Amino acid sequence: MKIVVLFIVCICLSLLFLVTVDLASGLSLTEAIQVLTDSFSTTTLQEYMIIFIFLSIPFVAAFISIIKKRKQKS
């Protein structure tokens, strides 16, 4: 589960960094958030599938390690 938490923290820090860069360039907070949402509005179905696959990797790895630990205990 530590990997999943670390993964979520990294994603949040990355999004915060992107918003901070937009704020430093002179955009307002609403405009900075709008830039993030606009980038996902042009994403195609195939790109969404790839994003989903890569976002699910840490969760699958954590689930597999939990299953392995349960098998070793029994």
Give a description of the structure.
The chain is an all-alpha fold and 74 residues long. It has three helices and no strands. The protein has helices spanning 2-24, 29-41, 45-73. Helix 1 (2-24) crosses helix 2 (29-41). The radius of gyration is 17 Å and the shape is elongated.
How much is the average pLDDT? 91
Shape: elongated
How many beta-strand elements?
A: 0
Helix content: over 70%
Q: Name the poorly predicted regions.
A: none
The quaternary organization reads as single chain
Major sheet attributes? none
Whole-angstrom Rg: 17 Å
Helix/strand-derived category reads mainly alpha
Written as H for each helix and E for each strand, in order along the chain, the element string is HHH
C-alpha termini separation: 21 Å
Work out the strand percent: under 5%
Q: Count up the helices.
A: 3
Lay out the secondary structure:
Blueprint: H1 2-24, H2 29-41, H3 45-73
Helix pairs in contact: 1-2
